[in-house]
Specification:
- By secondary structure, the protein is of the alpha+beta class.
- It has 2 domains: about 1-120 and about 275-280, Diaminopimelate Epimerase, Chain A, domain 1; about 125-265, Diaminopimelate Epimerase, Chain A, domain 1 (Roll), CATH 3.10.310.10.
- The chain has helices at about 30-35, 75-90, 175-185, 225-235, and strands spanning about 1-10, 15-20, 45-50, 60-65, 70-75, 95-100, 105-115, 115-125, 125, 140-150, 150-160, 160-170, 195-205, 210-215, 220, 245-250, 255-260, 265-270, 275-280.
- It has a 19-stranded mixed β-sheet that branches.
- Strand 2 (about 15-20), helix 1 and strand 3 (about 45-50) form a beta-alpha-beta unit.
- The longest helix has 13 residues, at about 75-90.
- The protein binds the ligand N[C@@H](CCC[C@H](N)C(=O)O)C(=O)O.
- The ligand N[C@@H](CCC[C@H](N)C(=O)O)C(=O)O binds next to helix 2 and helix 4.
């Protein structure tokens, strides 16, 4: 079977976009995500995003995002900007676009420049499944001691749709094998039975953070939009960055601007671009992908 797709990236977080606005989500959506995301063997990506019929009367489309291992994410901060850019160039040429999601609600996006979108990401909350820890008034869990990968850490658990485990470092954040090893150890820690995304953040100025990311379901990625929001929220809550001001989150794939507002809602601004389109042959799935 042949499938039309568009490859897009936001801050280097790359997804394959499949337009299902007419037909709806395909039954093999998760299996296709595993197959198509494999770098060197197929299109290659951090995951697949299906654009589906809207869930609300005022929605322009709905978005379903699947990580490279076939697990479904609740939200995708980089992916939703690319989804808006895709819709903008495929029939919804408006500067305000509304994208529905099954469990994170509707996201409203504003086109603030050529290929530049600002998205209202909603309120940050406690990461939902940090077992045994108690958040402040049901809010994020701050300064939680955790042993993982043979090291003792202090982590901040914040959800922005997806759950995130944020760690602040004095040194430049880890990359390569170190990022993969620590990300995996923390991301699969028993405190997080549903798995968690991991961000290492080094404050580099009063409003700037250098960040590296290990994503559940995809491994190390060049950026994570909800992750950038979670890092900014943790930085505000721990007094490292100001509330209500733009915070620049520098990731290996690009810089995202995040503003944590007085009511705990978060604004995320960043690029969104198509890189190529094509047709891919869907093969019967042979070998399952290993856990990342
Ligand atoms: N890269 C995304 C988040 C994707 C989902 C995440 N891996 C999860 O399963 O929670 C972003 O830009 O937010």
């Amino acid at each position: 079977m042949k499938l039309n797709f568009t490859k897009m990236q936001g801050a280097g977080n790359d997804y394959i976009y499949i337009d299902c606005r007419a037909a709806g989500l395909p039954p093999d959506a998760a299996a296709w995500a595993v197959q198509l995301s494999r770098r060197h063997f197929s299109v290659g990506a951090d995951g697949v995003i299906y654009l589906c019929p809207p869930l609300r009367a005022d929605g322009d489309a709905a978005m379903r995002m699947f990580n490279a291992d076939g697990s479904e994410g609740v939200m995708c901060g980089n992916g939703v900007r690319c989804a808006a850019e895709f819709l903008y160039t495929h029939g919804v040429r408006r500067d305000c676009i509304r994208i529905d999601t099954p469990s994170a609600g509707q996201r409203v996006l504003h086109r603030v420049g050529d290929g530049l979108w600002q998205v209202e990401m909603g309120r940050f909350t406690a990461a939902p499944d940090a077992v045994g820890a108690v958040g402040l008034g049901g809010g994020p869990l701050l300064d939680v001691p955790l042993c993982a990968g043979g090291r003792a850490w202090r982590v901040h658990c914040v959800a922005v749709g997806n759950p995130h485990c944020v760690l602040f470092t004095h040194e430049p954040p880890p990359a390569g094998a170190e990022l993969a090893a620590w990300g995996r150890a923390l991301g699969h820690h028993p405190a997080f039975p549903g798995g968690i995304n991991v961000e290492f953040a080094q404050p580099i100025s009063p409003t700037g953070l250098a960040v590296t990311v290990w994503e559940r379901g995809s491994g190390a990625t060049l950026a994570c939009g909800t992750g950038a929001c979670a890092v900014a929220a943790a930085a505000v809550l721990t007094g490292r960055c100001p509330r209500g001001a733009p915070i620049l989150v520098q990731l290996p794939g690009g810089t995202l601007e995040v503003c944590v507002q007085r009511d705990d809602t978060v604004l995320l601004t960043g690029d969104a671009a198509a890189t190529f389109s094509g047709t891919v042959l869907i093969q019967p799935c042979k070998a399952p992908r290993g856990v990342v």
